[in-house]
Specification:
The chain is of the alpha/beta class and about 200 residues long. The protein is about 25% helix and about 20% strand. Strands 3-2-1-4-5-6 form a six-stranded parallel sheet, with helices on both faces. α3 packs parallel to α4.
Amino acid sequence: MNVRIDLDSALIIVDVQRDFLPGGALPVPKGDEVIPVLNEYIELFKRKGGRIFATRDWHPANHISFKGRGGLWPPHCVQSTRGAEFSEALKLPEDATVISKAVDPDVESYSGFSGTDLADKLRNSGVRRVFIGGLATEYCVKNTVLDAIKEGFETYFLEDASRGIDLNPGDVEKAVQEMLDRGALKIRLSDINGE
């Protein structure tokens, strides 16, 4: 595959936040491995004039996804805490657009499009193609990819820049297959034309 990045392309970095990295409240195994790869994608998009977006969980302290309210997860990425910060190793440019999601305490929300203005911001920037990677593959990455497809964007899943939790063995593999079945294209850095 030989994919080009240009002015109608956007990189969407999903939830590369401290709480999802080793030592965080809800660490994705080997989640830190996505950072150097995403930094390469960031450089490439900057060079080619593509747009860069970064989603983040921005939970209120009483979010419905937390175990205290019957959810699956320990408290994580609570608004304005250190755990909700992007990793300092991630070289997000100053003009990257940050999308805060899952801000309603009573709504579980994995997708970067759910309850946000991400789709409008992409369209207003002239974006037609989105390239999505980050954490975690079978939750927020998958749901963001599926919603991007629903919104009509040509959608690429960045296999080398995503890691999953695999709560039940095989979850990640199933999620990747579902993304492909719905129309996403799976690529790695080496598939992109860097000319």
